[in-house]
Amino acid sequence: MTIFSNTFGLAMRNFTTYPEMPDPQALIAYATKAEELGFDSVWVWDHIFLGVDPPFPVIDSLTLLAAVAARTIRINLGTGVLVLPLRNPVVLAKELSSLDLIAGGRLLLGMASGWYKREFDAVGVPFDQRGRIMDRNLEILRRLWTEDQVNAEAAGKDPATLLNANQLPICVGPSREAVEAPMMEWLGQEWDYAAWSDSTKEAAIFGTVDECIAQLRAQLAVGVQKLIFIPYKYRPDQVEIIAREIIPRLRGEQ
To answer: What pTM, to 2 d.p., does this model score?
Structure first.
């Protein structure tokens, strides 16, 4: 499947704050609505567990995508992002290829080395070796999917085949001032940031339609190829505004 730049995906909230539990049927309905609205892809968060008090119950990313695959036809299914070092690469290669077969080739893989040390400790994977493990696992996946017989023969990587993306929380409202306080409160409640990361609440997109478009065009101008929207509180009205007023203008249709 050919992946084009400047495409627009939608994040799914496959986690909740305890005691609320994730609702599989609501998540599937959310994904089918995203397909109806013309989003090219939906993206699930990937964690073994998250949070301490209160915890955030998380539906397994690949299990949820399999359910969504069975209820959709066109929309691509993305991991945003799969924590590759936490998984056995041979088992994962089987799981991902099976999921892609179920989805008819619609699986998009976003993968990273991870940042949440408690997950690594729980699974028994050395956190300080996650970069090396990431490289090794990625190479094993690639070879299992492309070679008839996998052995010790060296093979290169082609960075040109990779697509970059940015997941951005967004809130569209009557003015930037009107939505700033609730947006910052939401980000403070549901988001966590690694101390060493450049990703902060200040990177969020919010304001009027025009203000949001200006911020998003700045992302595209520096080379971001895919924008994955994380709508404010995953509200249906925000999803509708993004689909009907933001994306067409980014595509130059309005």
So the answer is: 0.78
